[in-house]
Amino acid sequence: MRVKYYSSEGIVLAKKNYSEADRIIILLTRNWGKLHILAKGVRKPISKKRGSLEIFSRIRFSASQTKGLALITEVEIIDSFNSIRANLKKVAVAYFFMEVLGRVLHEGERHNDVYEITLSYIDKLRCGVKLGKLRADFIYKVLVSLGFWPKGKEMNNPDLVLEEVIERKVNSIRVGKRLLS
Fold first, then answer.
1. Following CA atoms 42, 44, 50, 54 in sequence, which dihedral angle do they give, to the nearest 10 degrees?
2. CA dist., res. 29 & res. 115, Å (int)
3. Is the dihedral of CA 112, 4, 60, 94 positive or negative?
4. What pTM value is reported for the model?
5. Residue of 11, 174, 159, 21 lying closest to 80 (CA atoms)
6. DSSP state of 149
7. Which fold has domain 5-79?
């Protein structure tokens, strides 16, 4: 991406501590795909951006490109999904969704359909009762959308197929299965 200044809407997939007061935020954005963006000073207790950059929050942000990572200049929360955060099982499934997306998507590849699928499944998670089925359906939809699985073909073991696609174990599968059983 060679744009100097840009803004978009996105979902926070993950965050990693970087230096003393900064964090690298991994976002799935509507316009730019998966991005790694540096949030300067966000780990300081007085940071205004701190609460907006929580995992699986939907945000509107502005960033400027530097020589290295892009820097977040502004961030506004669109939806923090508080009703999901109040239920441990739903939080586990939401974290699973974010981990799957973080592993399956590549930096800078634009996938509007995956962004829309993610928003719809997080919305379904708010009122969802059959979390195990919701989880399996999410894997199926994402893998079909990205071309890793043929559309219309039944997927008997979504977790196994997912691990074959990303060629490693997904950490939150174990937690999700234990909570949902």
1. 80
2. 7
3. positive
4. 0.88
5. 11
6. S
7. OB fold (Dihydrolipoamide Acetyltransferase, E2P) (2.40.50)
